[in-house]
Amino acid sequence: MKWMARTKARLLNATDVFCPSRTLRPPPESLHVSSPSAGTRWTCVERHRISWQYTGALWHPCDVLLERRTDEGWTPAALLAAHVDPRALGASVVVPELPTGPYRVLITSPELPAAACSPPLVIRHP
């Protein structure tokens, strides 16, 4: 029976020359946070723009969260925006009153294989 599997594989490889579209797969959905960048400093109760780029066809709304760096790792700190259309390529958010320290932006969607994170930023008080 192994010869049958080998024959099928050879036939598929041979027909790929004539039907290349069968071997092409759409790119996986991915999202990359482009702003804020590394070393950004935000002040509480100010408005800031978060922007991203994506590949694939994301249609499900995204949530934009803020995570705080603690001794235990990254922990949820605040929901900045909910149900954002990923095709908007960004969101304008107000930074809530939070303790001073290192944070990062996290963008999640059920369609993404993994959440997208910004580089660390610092939030401070005015």
Mind explaining what this structure looks like?
This protein has 1 helix and 9 strands, in the order αβββββββββ. The chain has one helix at about 1-15; strands spanning about 30-35, 40-45, 45-55, 60-70, 75-85, 90-95, 100-110, 115, 120-125. Strands 2, 4, 5, 7, 8 and 9 form a 6-stranded mixed β-sheet that branches. A 3-stranded antiparallel β-sheet has the order 1-3-6, with no helix packed on it. The protein is elongated and about 70 Å long. About 15% of the residues are buried.
Brief digest:
This protein is mainly beta and 126 residues long.
Q: Which stretches of 5+ consecutive residues score pLDDT under 50?
A: none
Rg computed from alpha carbons, rounded to a whole number of angstroms: 21 Å
Termini, distance in Å?
A: 73 Å
How would you state the average pLDDT, rounded?
Answer: 84
The general outline is elongated
The counted number of beta strands is: 9
Helical percentage: 10-25%
Blueprint of the fold:
Elements lengths: L1 H15 L13 E6 L5 E3 L3 E9 L6 E9 L2 E12 L5 E5 L6 E8 L7 E2 L3 E4 L2
Parallel strand pairs: 2-9
Antiparallel strand pairs: 1-3, 3-6, 4-5, 4-7, 7-8, 7-9
